[in-house]
Amino acid sequence: MKSVVVFCGSRHGERPEYAAAARELGQLLAQRELTLVYGGGRVGLMGVMAQAALEAGGKVIGVIPEFMQERELGLTECTELIVVDSMHTRKARMAELADAFVAMAGGFGTFDELFEILTWGQIGIHGKPVGVLNTAGYYDGMRQFLDATMTEGFVRESELAKLQFADTPAALLDQLAATPLLPARWAKADLFSKT
User: Fold this and answer.
1) Which regions of 134-187 does DSSP assign to beta strands (E)?
2) Nearest partner of 103 among 75, 65, 143, 71, judged by Cα
3) Cα atoms found within 13 Å of the Cα of residue 26, Cβ hemisphere only
């Protein structure tokens, strides 16, 4: 594992624990010499995490759509800031750069990114580990909902078991690092190609 994509909020949230976890994750990624790949923003938890990684000497790759960059929402201090044409291209480019994925506290955008990457794994487009950082129990309700999707027969237990949860950044990174990379079943069904 050399790079980790992190999906997280463009807001700070109501609890100080969320920003503290973002800061800790950014620092840990740098200390472990793991490249942070994220949405390229300078605001919210995204900005806190990226700044912490940079301040700790880490490599940070931001991927941001052009319309957001035009509104000066990008973190120009990133090691590399990739400007793309759309949200769809952003997600595909981030996935291409990833060895693993982490979702932190966030809103609709974070949920969209997490569930899309889970779907891509389910249908065999990638075999990379996916984890959720459950700071202050933020994702407890989602865990219950996901258990219900399995109970109701819409998600297999083996598929749900691939989604890992941890309460601290260090524990989650340890879990992801210990998870073997599975081969993609559909290497040519390439959502990551530029068409």
Assistant:
1) 163-166
2) 143
3) 25
